[in-house]
Every structure is written in C-alpha cells, then in structure tokens.
Amino acid sequence: MPLQLSMIKRSSGEDSPSVRLQISAIGVAALIFCIGVSVPLSAYLNNPVPAIVGMPLGLYLLFAIRVADQWQKAAVLRLGRYIGLRGPGVFMIIPVIDQISKYVDQRVRVTAVKAESALTRDTVPVNVDAIVFWLVWNAEKSILEVMDFDNAITMSAQTALRESIGRHDLAQMITEREMLGKELQRILDEKTNPWGITVQSVEIRDVHIPQALEDAMSRQAQAERERQARIILGTAETEISAKFAEASKVYINNPVALHLRAMNMLYEAIKEKGSMVIVPSSAVETMGLGGMLGTAAISHQKQ
C-alpha cells in the first residue's frame, strides 16, 4: 500500500520529502488498520501480544522511514552531532534522537542576478543582468559550512558583478561580455569552493544604459561615420588629382593624345540616345573637329 501511494504521487509531479513521508505514513496506518480488521477481536483478547508489539513497531516505522530522490542527499545529526549523509533512496533514522537537515539538490541550478545603477570605470550608470550556473558537489560541506547557500550564492554573485562592473569601461562591457562572464565565474568559484559548491559559468544577458546616454552614443556613432566618409572622400580626391597631374605630363607633349582624350569624352557624353551636349566653338577648333564634322555632314547629305 505505501508503495502504490508513493508511485501515484510521483507521477503527479515533484513533491517534497515531507509530503511523501505523510503519504507513506498513511499507507502504513492503512495497512495496520486492514490487518486489525481482518483479525477477530477475540484473537486480540486471547493473545494481545501481537497488538502490543505491532502498534509500537508501526509507530516507529512511521517516524523512522525517510525517502530521498535520486538527486538529493541529507545530513543526519544524532544528538546534535553529524554522523553522515543519507540518500538517495530509502533510509532510516532513530526518531527523537536523530535530526535531518534539509534535502540538498545536487543538480545544476540557475540563479539570475541583477546589478542596478552600478557605475562603470568611466562613471556610466548601467543595469546588468546575468545568469549563474552552479551545483553542489559536496553536500556535506554545503550543509555544515554555510547556513543558507542559496542566498549566499545570490548575494555573492551580485557583489562580484558590481565589483567587476566598476573595473571595466562601458565599451568593454558591451563588446567583451564573454571575458566579463569568465572573470565573474573565477571570482565566485574561489569564494564558493570551500562551501562544496562550484560555479560552472556566468553569462551576461544584457547591459542597459540610460536612454539619454543611448541617444548621445547614437549621435556620436553617426558623427564618427560621417567623419570617416569625409576622410575617405578627401583621400579619393587627392588620389584622383595626383593621377590627373601624371596624365597632364603625358598630354603636354602629345597633342594628338589630348585630342583623342577629348573626343572620347565627347563620345561618352553623347552616346546615350536623346542627349545633347553644348561644346564651345573654341574647343572644337582646338581639337580640330570643325573640318571633320563638316565632312561627316556633307557625306550624310549625299547619301
């Protein structure tokens, strides 16, 4: 009967050991009651020894049987002295004499920490959200060395996060989150190892800055982009002028090449359909295009 009730309770979700103990106690009481009903009253009157022995035994088992899940362990104190760990599975204690600590979960846990309005090294107020992954690798130390290790982990992580923020600039916190997380993991692991707890990793989820500062940084980034664009444009103009200076040295002693270049420029300008280019007559005479254009016009009329 206790086994059936315990299995039903497990299937409905994860329960505390005290709840499972109550269910087991109900099962033991029900078993004793069934046995008592099945035995005639005359049997108790004729031979009361089984009842005298069975009832104290049932009460003893009711308070002596404990159950721990696969990932749980508990410390047993006998008359105030630590005698060892128990679990996982079923274990027994001596009622009244023995005392059980709270069950320690040895699975990986996740704790969210937040540092609000912390100042960076360049005096920028930021709100930082982080996640700490940790586990209890030594249940004995976690029970005997620290009173409330859950709260100790949270407070230590918040303190370490604020200290790390004060040692870094805002740009480092935004661009080097992984480095910041590793630093926090090292600091916390050194502090929690004597408690039997190890910090596996710390992840920085987000870094929030004031809205006014965010707008100012956006304008600064935009101005920086414009400055770089103007520098690139000026550099291009300088390179182009240098190439033109080199070309002038070639054209100064070679007028034919200059005329060919001018004709090519005119061709590039008028090659699109419907385009019109107005060229000064002096430029046409300089390039010697007047006679060539007239000859082309006369041949066109003959055709």
Explain what you see.
Helix content is 58%, strand content 20%. The protein has 303 residues and is α+β, with helices and mostly antiparallel strands. It folds into three domains: 2-104, no CATH class; 109-209, Band 7 domain (Tetrahydropterin Synthase, Chain A); 254-303, no CATH class. Strands 2, 3, 5 and 6 form a four-stranded antiparallel beta sheet that branches. A hairpin with a 5-residue loop joins strand 7 and strand 8. It is rod-shaped, with a radius of gyration of 44 Å.
**Estimated share of beta-strand residues:** 15-25%
Fraction of residues in H or I helices:
55-70%
Along the chain, the helix and strand elements come as HHHHEEEEEEEEHHHHEHHHH
**Total domain units:** 3
- From the spread of the alpha carbons, the general shape counts as rod-shaped
Low-confidence stretches: 1-15, 290-302
DSSP strand tally:
9
Radius of gyration, in Å, reads: 44 Å
Quick check: average pLDDT? 76
What's the multimeric state?
single chain
Helix/strand/pairing class, anyone?
alpha+beta
- What is the CA-CA span between the terminal residues? 118 Å
Largest β-sheet summary: 4 strands, antiparallel
Number of helices: 12
